[in-house]
Amino acid sequence: MMNVAVLMFDNVEVLDFAGPFEVFGVSGGRENKRLYDVFTVAQHSKPVMARNNMSINCDYTFDTMPDAHVLVIPGGFGTRREKHSPSMIRFVQQRVAAAQSVVSVCSGALLLAKAGLLKGLQATSHQGALDELASDEPACTVHRNARVVDNGKIVTSAGIGMGIDASLYTVAKHHGLAQAQETARYMEYDWHYQTVDGVKIILAQGGRA
Predict the structure, then answer these.
(1) How many other CB atoms are there within 10 angstroms of residue 129's CB atom?
(2) N vs C: which end of the chain shows fewer Cβ within 10 Å?
(3) Which one-letter DSSP state was computed for residue 67?
(4) For residues 89 and 111, is the Cβ–Cβ distance under 8 A?
(5) If residue 93 lies in a helix (H) or strand (E), which one and from where to where?
(6) What are phi and psi of 62, to 5 degrees?
(7) Topology at the third CATH level for domain 2-203
């Protein structure tokens, strides 16, 4: 079983974190397989106020969370604040280094960029954050029409709902396409972006499908 840490912060986009949380949380459940243990983590123990004032009590703080095999970095307007937070950037650097897989959703890619983790890589983000991403990390190739970009360890996705696709894609990397398709069927999610096509799903040089 793999531990999945979902990073949380004020003004996080709700579906950015809830979509991946659902994908990893239910994957394998219908076959009585527990593939992932999913938890939330924030810098402090106080509730996180997500988009539209949804209050979230996170499972762990930066100091108390267990090791994570998978790190999910959602987006939202809060990324514009958090990318200037030394403690957030330090957390991202440390936890990305320790993880086996990283999934960024929407403007979560901005945190990776500010942490220096997209240098020389390829990425995508929400349409409203693409220019900012290119500015934050000029050495990153930004794909403006892609839905999911796979660099191997780091997978980035376009906005909001595409976090579900990136998470299903990651399940397929871990456990095979059939397992990911079963997860999508259980969720009754019409999953179009399943295989690398070089346009919507990009396998970057050095990536591993």
Answers:
(1) 23
(2) N
(3) P
(4) yes
(5) helix 86-98
(6) -55, -35
(7) Rossmann fold (3.40.50)
Location of structure tokens 């397992």: 179
Kindly give, in sequence order, each residue whose CB lies less than 8 Å from that of residue 48, ignoring residues fewer than 6 positions away: 8, 9, 10, 12, 42, 55, 56, 58
Per-residue pLDDT of the chain (209 residues; tens, 9 = 90+): 999 999 999 999 999 999 999 999 999 989 889 999 999 999 999 999 999 999 999 999 999 999 999 999 999 999 999 999 999 999 999 999 999 999 999 999 999 999 999 999 999 999 999 999 999 999 999 999 999 999 999 999 999 999 999 999 999 999 999 999 999 999 999 999 999 999 999 999 766 65
- pTM, entire model: 0.96
Are the C-beta atoms of residues 163 and 125 closer than 8 Å to each other? no
CA-wise closest residue to 200 among 179, 154, 169, 160: 169
Amino acid at 149: V
How far is Cα 166 from Cα 148, in angstroms, rounded to an integer? Answer: 6
- Looking from the CA of 9 toward its CB, the CA atoms found within 13 Å total 24
CB 75 within 8 A of CB 16: yes
